[in-house]
Fold this protein.
Amino acid sequence: MVISIEVAEYGIGKVLVDQGSSVNILYWKTFQKMNLSDDLIVPYNKQIVGFSGERVDTRGYLDLRTRIDSRKDGREVRVRFLLVEANTSYNVLLGRPCLNAFGAIVSTLHLAMKFPSDKGMICTVHADQQITRQCYAAGLRITPYSRPRKQHRSEVAMTDLDTRMNSEDRLQPEGETKDISIGSQPGQVTKIGGALSGEEEKLLGK
């Protein structure tokens, strides 16, 4: 879903809410349009993996006061953004760190997001469907950003946007595990804890 937010008192549209991202991103083109000092940037000379697998540069990170709800009785949180230089139709990407900081719940079915305010109220933000379609169409025409680099890819420290590729975010089982059948076809199995009783295994297999 695509929304509008306020970052460092600047109103910013074309903000992509992505629950699969492990970082928040402020795109370099957006930062350049904001009257913010470069002294706020903390060096972070690494790369991240883009959605289509391309490697994109980072120019550091910075912490900025962020407001998702435009109402003044909403909530403002200091959010850490990676500065990323990439061709994109979006201005900002809000990932899990920001959503967790706000305690936000996102419903893609209803194209809405809810989170509690500091005063105990429930704030609701709705996606802009027209802007969402415009960004999607523009994204199909964009070529990945790239520029010559001296280092080899194997020498570059990577930060992955996809939780399926980020081992630090995965829950790991404790102790030994074993396979249990969960379907009628061969190969339809999953892993369970080795310490479960036979009765518990039967319940899981139903």
Remarks:
- The domain at 2-164 is CATH 2.40.70.10 (Cathepsin D, subunit A; domain 1).
- Residues 57 and 148 are 11 Å apart (CA to CA).
